[in-house]
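Action item from last meeting closed. Structure (217 res):
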C-alpha cells in the first residue's frame, strides 16, 4: 500500500470509527472489564448474536436479560425458564426464544460446572492461545464457530492475545470500504486498544452496504 493509499485508508478508518465505532457489548450496556460478570454477559451476547436474527434484536435481548436480573451465570441458571423467555420476547427476540432460553440456562450451568462461573478460567485452560480459546467457546450451547468469533471479537478489548479478531463480516466490511482484507494489515490501521471498536464498525458495514456508502462514497 502506497503512502497515499495508507493516508486515504486512515481517513476512512477515522470516519468509520466516528460513525460506527461502538462495540456490540457497549451497545448492550456491558461495561467490559476482565472480571466474571461482564465476561459472562459477553458470552450471552455472543450466544444471542450467533443465531440468524437481526443484531439489534440480539443486543436488545442481552440488555433485557440483565435488566431482568440474569446478568451472572448463577442468576441465569436459577431464573425460571419462562422468565428467560419473557425477557427475550420483551426485546422482540422471538423466533428462537424458547430454544435460546433453554440454551442460556444450560450454558450458565456449563460455565459454573467447568470454569466455576468465570471465563478467565477458560482463558487459563487455553493457555492464553487464541485458537484454543475459540475452540473452547464452541463447546457452549448454540455458540459454535460463528458465536466464538463474535465473542472473541468483543473480548479482544480486554484479552490482547485475541488480537486481531477480524474475520467474517468484518473482512466483508473492509472489502466494501476498499481497505485491506488481510487481518494483520487491517489491524495495522488502528491502535491495538481500538481493535474491538474497529472490528464492530467493520462488521456493521459488512451487514449494511448503505453504511459503507456513507463512509466511503
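Sequence:
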Amino acid at each position: 500500500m502506497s503512502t497515499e493509499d495508507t493516508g486515504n485508508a486512515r481517513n476512512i478508518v477515522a470516519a468509520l470509527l466516528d460513525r460506527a465505532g461502538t462495540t456490540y457489548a457497549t451497545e448492550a450496556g456491558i461495561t467490559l472489564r476482565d472480571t466474571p460478570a461482564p465476561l459472562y454477559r459477553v458470552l450471552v451476547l455472543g450466544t444471542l448474536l450467533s443465531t440468524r436474527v437481526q443484531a439489534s434484536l440480539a443486543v436488545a435481548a442481552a440488555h433485557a436479560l440483565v435488566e431482568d436480573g440474569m446478568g451472572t451465570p448463577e442468576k441465569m441458571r436459577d431464573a425460571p425458564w419462562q422468565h428467560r423467555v419473557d425477557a427475550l420476547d420483551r426485546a422482540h427476540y422471538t423466533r428462537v426464544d424458547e430454544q435460546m432460553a433453554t440454551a442460556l440456562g444450560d450454558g450458565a450451568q456449563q460455565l459454573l460446572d467447568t470454569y466455576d462461573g468465570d471465563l478467565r478460567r477458560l482463558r487459563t485452560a487455553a493457555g492464553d492461545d487464541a485458537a484454543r480459546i475459540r475452540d473452547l467457546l464452541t463447546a457452549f450451547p448454540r455458540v459454535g464457530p460463528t458465536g466464538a468469533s463474535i465473542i472473541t471479537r468483543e473480548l479482544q478489548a480486554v484479552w490482547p492475545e485475541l488480537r486481531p479478531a477480524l474475520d467474517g463480516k468484518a473482512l466483508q466490511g473492509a472489502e466494501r470500504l476498499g481497505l485491506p482484507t488481510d487481518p494483520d494489515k487491517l489491524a495495522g490501521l488502528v491502535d491495538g486498544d481500538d481493535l474491538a471498536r474497529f472490528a464492530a464498525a467493520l462488521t456493521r458495514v459488512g451487514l449494511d452496504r448503505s453504511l459503507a456508502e456513507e463512509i466511503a462514497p
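Note appended to the action item: DSSP finds 14 helices and no strands in the chain.
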